[in-house]
Amino acid sequence: MASWKDYVRRVEPYTPGEQPKEDNIIKLNTNENPYGPSPLVRKVQENIDDLRLYPDPTAGALVEQLSAYHQVSKNQVFVGVGSDDVLAMAFLTFFNSDRKLLFPDITYSFYPVWAELFRIPYEQPKLDADFRICKEDYYRENGGIVFPNPNAPTGIYETLSFVEDILEHNPGVVVVVDEAYIDFGGESALPLLPKYDNLLIVRTFSKSRSMAGLRIGYAIGNPELIKAMSDVKYSYNSYTMNRPSLLYGVESLKDEAYFQATVQKIIRTRTWFGKELRTLGFTFPDSKANFLFATHERVSAKEIFEAARKNGIYVRYFAQPRIDNYLRITIGTDEEMQKLIDFLKEFLS
Ligand code: PMP
Predict the structure, then answer these.
(1) CA-CA distances (angstroms) from residue 158 to 167, 191, 241?
(2) Ligand 1 centroid, distance to 52 Cα (angstroms)
(3) Which of 31, 81, 83, 158 to mutate to test the pocket of ligand 1 (most atoms within 8 A of CB)?
(4) Quick one: 29 and 174 in the same domain?
(5) Domain check: are 133 and 184 in the same one?
(6) Cα–Cα nearest to 35, from 313, 247, 336
(7) End-to-end C-alpha distance for the chain, whole angstroms
């Protein structure tokens, strides 16, 4: 006899980084920002009674603030519950072909999960030996393209002309550029939007705006792309953005000075911490993200990961072919990074 179990949609879920419960740990494993949201966000006076009301399904206030911030029109902006939600909606909306979706073999590990969930055929061209994306791999028939720039977990940034070459070769499919980490030193593909109606840029408030806990992400693209995504969203869940997210998100965008200052602090710490890591025998590709992807000349990444964890320092380790001797280390405060350096000095000696 048939069982309901025969009809379950089985998926291998994405594994997010650990969120340890203990206090007094140093958490450098999920690319959070150590500085917290803008003081303007702290000043928001929420009216709890308003929570009885549904939020604005169009997320109008946030869309408007984002459109002013990026100088695009409102119908070019789509917002969602973190960029994960936005990316999932983009996969569902645009990658609806029998041809294969292309993304790198080493990249954000949620991409294959959505592809499996939505039954999108896909292929993962290999990064080269230096972990660079080979753009020529994307010059062939496909059902769409997605890649992060800078890439994760490598932190490697590719130039705008690289992004443009991929767009030039793929006018017939949607190309999604996931700019989760773009604010930490890369140049955004936003200036390419007027030229390419198949470009969708996805961003998040989780990293450079230090609001991972609130879950705000957005996409910017041609109005037709945004309309198609919105139609899918309204066929799935009308009220994705809750009231507090809309209020806090708007305030964050008003405080450019705080945003710039905290991003610059992270970039300075990245430079300093990178030098320290090198003197300890680590190597890593040049990163334009808020993390370094480092390997040690002598001691295995797994050993370092486990020892650091025992000492209350959490970094990210991927037990995955090609990158299982690397650690992805989020850039925290100077003090946190100094503690990691002190631990490493002792552990490696
Ligand atoms: N894209 C990339 C490349 C990421 O590393 C992450 C963080 N896990 C995300 C998207 C999703 O971030 P969020 O949902 O917090 O916006």
Answers:
(1) 13, 15, 32
(2) 30
(3) 83
(4) no
(5) yes
(6) 336
(7) 63
Q: Residue 102: its pLDDT value, please? A: 98
Residues 219 and 311 in one domain: no
User: Pairing mode, if any, of strands 291-296 and 282-283?
Assistant: antiparallel
Q: Tens digit of pLDDT for each residue in 66-112?
A: 999 999 999 999 999 999 999 999 999 999 999 999 999 999 999 99
Q: Structure tokens of 256? A: 């450019």
Number of domains in the chain: 2
Main-chain dihedrals φ then ψ at residue 45, nearest 5 degrees: -95, 100
CB 199 within 8 A of CB 193: yes
Which residue from 203, 197, 240 is spatially nearest to 221, judged by alpha carbons? 197
Structure tokens at 323: 């990158």
Residue 309 CB-half CA count within 13 A: 16
- Residue located via tokens 């150590």: 34
| Domain boundary, last residue among 231, 255, 279 | 255
23-49 per-position pLDDT tens digit: 899 999 999 999 999 999 999 998 999
Burial tier of 227 (Cβ tally within 10 Å: 0-12, 13-18, 19+): middle
Q: Which atom of ligand 1 is nearest to the CA of 212?
A: 15
Q: Is the CB of 32 under 6 A from ligand 1?
A: no
